Structure of Polyribonucleotide nucleotidyltransferase:
Amino acid sequence: MFDVKKVEMEWGGKTLTLETGRIARQADGAVLATHGETVVLCAVTAAKSVKEGQDFFPLTVHYQEKFSAAGRIPGGFFKRERGATEKETLVSRLIDRPVRPLFPEGFYNEINVICQVLSYDGETEPDILAMIAASAALTISGVPFMGPIAAARVGYKEGEYQLNPNMAEVAEGELDLVVAATGNAVMMVESEAKELSEEVMLGAVLYAHDEIKKVCNAIIDLAEQAAKDPWEIDLSDNTADMKAELKKLIGKDIAAAYKITDKSKRSNALNEARAKAKEHYASAEPQTQMVAGKVMKKLEAEIVRGAILKDGQRIDGRKVNQIRPIESIVGFLPRTHGSALFTRGETQAICTTTLGTKDSEQMIDGLDGLSYSNFMLHYNFPPYSVGEVGRFGAPGRREVGHGKLAWRALHPVLPKFDDFPYTIRILSDITESNGSSSMATVCGGCLSMMDAGVPIENPVSGIAMGLILEGDEFAVLSDILGDEDHLGDMDFKVAGSANGITTMQMDIKIAGITEEIFKAALTQAKEGRAHILGEMTKALGTSRTELSSHAPRIETLQIDKTKIRDVIGTGGKVIREIVAETGAKVDIDDEGLVKVSSSDGAAIEAAINWIKGIVEEAEIGKIYDGKVVNIVDFGAFVNFMGGKDGLVHVSEMKNERVEKVTDVVTEGQEVKVKVLEIDPRGKVRLSMRVVDQETGEELEDTRPAREPRADRGPRKGGNDRGRDGGRGRRDRGPKRDAGEKGGSDGGDAGLPDFITQD
């Protein structure tokens, strides 16, 4: 019934299987990819015709993780997969970026690539497998895809590269790098590193490419068995005459426009040239007008690229390795915990850092279950930043991707959570953009954290590199402009500290680059990062030693795990009371680590003292601050150490006779007490009279010691019962006072067992 085609290979210690012909047979191409026990299905469909007037390539990639793949039911009210999560959006981009440049120019048929995770073993990450499945499905679909590509993840630990490590191994190592490539050249790089050298990073890319070649060969083997007939499309370029005509008409205008350094003025000059071309073709067919617009873009690219390669002349007059002017300002927003305004040429970002408690952590619900992140970076790109009108609202895929890139750049230098137990959120609002706003976010985000007092290990800067490649001749551009990005062949971003690289991202718009170009770009980027870092330190060289007065303070306290229940109380009663009374937040983990947070230092101190009072044992002879919580006829009960109560007997209030307890203390009064005795049952006897109530210093006990009672001998009288059997009174012990039943200076009635009357 099924004409199943399959290839298998051993890869990274597990069997990689690519299968087609059994599932999704109505799609143009469908591949079921299995690695370990992780399974991803990718289906590709393509429109057979182009919409009228369309002049772009509508490729859409969707990656979806099915919760059932990990034996889980989604959380929330609806209990089903909803909109794309951040991870799904990022993986969709990860697939799109290396695939898109491999379609021929002029191919505008709509293509849909849908990847779904059907099984997840908890070890083999599905993102790499989805990229391989997508490439295989495109390769066998018959569409004009100049692949295949494959992908690999590389880790680095103890000087050794690791192929496709799981997330636990990645966390223990120093590198998480994803590479996509054809059999001949690298197409895409995405990474996070713990300040590694350029040599280690380049070695990781080359190591990944060697492994990728093996998978590309397996995809080719599958295509030889199952590929559909290639589409017959006419992509011949017959626009040479139109290009020559446009060059004669507006070539000089375009060249002059690209010599204007100001972006707005340059844009106006280009628009005038385009208007002249549009007027020239006003009477032509709509299709001809559309083609003319495309040809003009090619003409612009040709003029700009030629000037750079021949004369080293960039659009704004800089040399190929020159960085635009940089200005950094920190602390310019008064109520934020940390802020920075970073401006590089015509690119600008307002970055703020907000510190929060554990309650502010981001909850992430994924295939691995619930997890929490205490570091967030959110990037916004409003349309006014490029002088345009447009959609303003929820972040799109590009904004999510740029934010994650900056997140990867800064994450490796954050302090350990035990040393700095805060949730950190960086917000980057791009207010101007003309080239690499994501790297401006890295620089501004780093400065805002330093301004907030986050003790980062080393400051981080970032730079965007470009490439102009014509045959064997190439030029690497530092700190590219937006136009250089659009007209160039590479978008290569590198961020790191003075010690090494923390992230590296590369996207190629041509069919890959060579090792020589990659090495040259890394070397030039290192020089640029150092220059930018030097400019940043002019604003702030190291993290501030004090937090903002508006930021919460967090103090930690380690308690015995057996005391956790006492601090929380039945149904959380005790901890809620602590929070309500002090105004501080209190968090306790399963190991007994208590975090107390508040922007008010006094609230933190009060909460910590309360908790200490619950978990610590009172010491005999030590003086404590306390509060009178209850008054009885024979004394007052005083709460001290937050959670302990003891009795100050009326005789221990002053060194003189006290007629009424209320003559000395009132409920709620703050007093200083000394612990006199703790009986085996934990009852505490306190004294006020031996403590100076003003200073808290211990006073000398001036009261004379109590003399022992004299032996009064046998009682006399006819009622005595002597040993001789005579009738007498039983010996009942010492006779009780008249005040024994509860007088103000009375005896022992109703008192704890260890209390006696002096």
Remarks:
- The longest helix spans residues 198-226.
- The domain at 240-311 is CATH 1.10.10.400 (Arc Repressor Mutant, subunit A).
- Residues 136 and 219 are 6 Å apart (CA to CA).
- The chain has five domains: 5-226, 240-311, 326-537, 552-616, 618-701+719-758.
